[in-house]
Amino acid sequence: MKNDATPKTPPQAIVGFGKHDHAQCKTHGLSRAEAVCAAAKVQLTPVRRRVLEILLEAHEALGAYDVLARLAKEGLGSKPPVAYRALGFLVDNGLAHRIEKLNAYVACAHPGEAHDAAFMICRACGAVAEAEPRGMMKRTAVEVGFQIESLVIEAEGLCPDCVPKASL
User: Fold this and answer.
1) CA-based, 20 to 30 A from 51: which of 91, 92, 132, 146?
2) How far is residue 128's CA from residue 146's CA, in Å, rounded to a whole number?
3) pLDDT, mean of residues 128-146
4) Nearest 10 degrees: CA dihedral of 53, 56, 57, 60?
5) CATH number of the domain enclosing 64
6) How many CB atoms within 10 Å of residue 149?
7) What three-state secondary structure class fits 54?
8) Where in the sequence is the domain holding 133, given as residue range(s)?
9) Number of domains into which the chain is organized
């Protein structure tokens, strides 16, 4: 799925918890999505695009009904299949991830790049950051001869903004 002709994800979009130019992050995410869809010859319809924008704006995991409420408010659909189909399309095309623990979705920090995902979920504010799980798990798998086909890690804790508040 990797397309080397499209721009790479900027470091600030990978951080998730760090301060960054949010407008640039959203613009970059949408341009990557357009490139990924063009390369795959699939359509980023207005509803799919808006759902991705909603996820990019949030920087936290959103449930399908949260997305649906925004779509309905904007006149883009009020029935659950509208949101679920758009979210399914985004996940299937590597533009979003489903966070199992939260039964929710986040925009992918590495759209169009084949990768495993690890998520850090702040239990206080709900912010989510995506990282690529490397290291011990993959080394251990190689050592025992296990071939990992898919790896998703979900870690819950406190983000940098919430750690000081928790210690008060």
Assistant:
1) 132
2) 29
3) 82
4) 130
5) 1.10.10.10
6) 6
7) helix
8) 11-166
9) 1
